[in-house]
Specification:
Layout: E1 4-7, H1 32-41, E2 45-51, H2 53-56, H3 62-76, E3 84-88, H4 110-119, E4 127-130, H5 133-141, E5 146-150, E6 167-169, H6 172-190, H7 192-195
Parallel strand pairs: 1-2, 1-4, 2-3, 4-5, 5-6
Bound molecules: magnesium ion.
Residues 8, 10-12, 130-132, 153 line the site of magnesium ion.
Length: 196
Amino acid sequence: MRPAIFLDRDGTIIEQVHHLNRVEDVAVYPFAADALREFQAAGFATVIVTNQSAIGRGLLDEAGLEQIHDEMFRQLGSRQCIDRIYYSTSVPVSGDPRVVEDAWRKPGPGMLERAAEELGIELNESWMIGDAISDMLAGRNAGCRGTVLVRTGYGHRITQADPAIDYTTDNLLTAAHLIKLACASSQSSKSPSLSE
Ligand SMILES: [Mg+2]
């Protein structure tokens, strides 16, 4: 069993493009590869969990999604920096990012729970990072240890505190630093010599 970093894709690893369906629109953030390397070096599995309603809407097919991911990996410089990708193709009905209409689509916990089963992930030691409330809630609903909102993508629009958000930070790389600090301080607080 090991912990994971669950990662939203659009607005977190690559630039937010509404219903991204063209390879030429894939733009990996310049800090993403370093962040992913830091997570893996710290012992986390790196798992993308992404809502791709473009498929359910008929704007993209699964072969097109694979081409988009090939381009993402090309720009990241490695396929090894991501351990697994899960995606939901369903189209939301209510438009409310807080409502779980389908357990497999964020804010539902389904993709994270499947990853836990398939990859041996310890959810309560894992973190969810994304640029939307639905990402934060997916992490909550799956019982993750923490959630981190990044200010890239749609994240800059979220200005109010929200119980689903544990931390807010600039981007994926600063999220990596923040999580490492949080893990280090919880380890030291467990240490008997420091807890008194
Ligand atoms: Mg996003």
